Amino acid sequence: MVRTTGPAPSFTTSDDGVPIYRPGIDKDPGAPRVMRTESDSLGEMPVPADAYWGIHTARALENFPITRRALSNHPNLVIALAMVKQAAARANRDIGVLSDEKYAVIDQACQEIIDGELHEQFVLGVLQGGAGTSTNMCANEIIANRALELLGHEKGQYEHLSPLDDVNRSQSTNDVYPTAIKLAMVFSLARLLDEHRLLIESFRAKGREFAEILKVGRTQLQDAVPMTLGQEFRGFATTLQEDVDRLSEVIPWLNEINLGATAIGTGITADPRYAELVRRYLTEISGYEMVTAPDLIEATSDTGIFMTLSGTLKRAAVKLSKICNDLRLLSSGPQAGLGEINLPARQAGSSIMPGKVNPVIPEVVNQVAFSIIGADATVTAAAEAGQLQLNAFEPVITSSIMQSLAWMTNGCRTLRLNCVDGITANTARLEQMVESSVGVVTALTPYIGYKQAAALAYEALAGGGSVRELVIGRGLMEAELVQKVLSPERLSGVVPATGAIVLPMVPPEN
Fold first, then answer.
1. Would residue 350 show up in a list of annotated catalytic residues for this protein?
2. pTM score
3. Which of 86, 190, 299, 472 is 20 to 30 A (C-alpha) from 114?
């Protein structure tokens, strides 16, 4: 171990390539720093003595100064990596290739990470070359150095416990990394589904609250037939429920793993008993039923499930974005737009127009959807670019999907808490629009005929009075019958409370 007197090596740069200082990871550039020396097949390299990561991570930090989003920004991925390593350690102990002493400290180190410790040590950027090898190496080193501490040794004294020979025993990146990212996606997807369900219930609650409020429906942005505001919001809930169902269907496919396949799916370096043991332990540790893929060669190279998840997530995002478009339209104005509903005022909307309030919450969720659409294109391109027995681009697939899952989860939460829960109906505006709408004439066509109804609609639009007044004034229908036909229950398609209406013969057209 040596003490340096100059600036510590900087491993991270900003998005535009300028070196940056990271509090908690990089020491003050002007302060001395204690370093340890580690070696690999390429030679020696100094590593911060207090770092749990080692030389393989250090090289990756220098090689991939691409993104400031470290693995630690995806805690579910860090936890999933630790769970895979813990399951592997237990399987290796059972088959006799890992001593009880080494197993115990590796297991404890993994459990600490699962419990939330040492996450800040996963400093490597999620985007990297090497098909995730650097991520696997980083996990191996952090677990090994914590295990060495538990054994009473210094970090880096790998002769006592090795990141590769012990922590990575019976494994390769090519089965560890895809298994871990699938498990991380399951964890993140479960959180998204929880938030999605809460948002659905929020829309359902508004559907019940607005159940008796009549409004004008619209098709192609033109006035159509009446409906209730409650029906509109209930429809939002129903369409979101469909996406919960589709996203839930993806989880069992994510639980198909290739642990034990090692490098390309042949199982080289793994005991024949290992695959079933590690599958059983990962099921126990994660709480999800894991299934070993029937064809491990195919499973190692195939990334189809990631396209399925990304595409399903895109579908959900697009539909949620459409709902946000509707909320912005329905609340537009408030004086010169539709102005049918009122969104909660969250912040001042203009630096020049006093009193202006913008629909910022739906707008930000729209932008989440745009990002997810773009991420899906990235996943598609990366999946297509795989070659032969491995896809080298799983890191960008991981980065894209994990970001989409996180942003979608946060988008659902902020839409619910900061917007939907506080929406109110502009009842006076809605009543006035329904009363003056010619769309109600559609309900009268079985009684007066399409041609007569169309003529009345044009006359009403020209300012000749309301449809109700014109029908009664022309003697085309009795006032009592008009009242029944144009009741809110009838107009909105709700089960009628006015009794059956006997259809009179349609008057002959002149």
1. yes
2. 0.85
3. 299
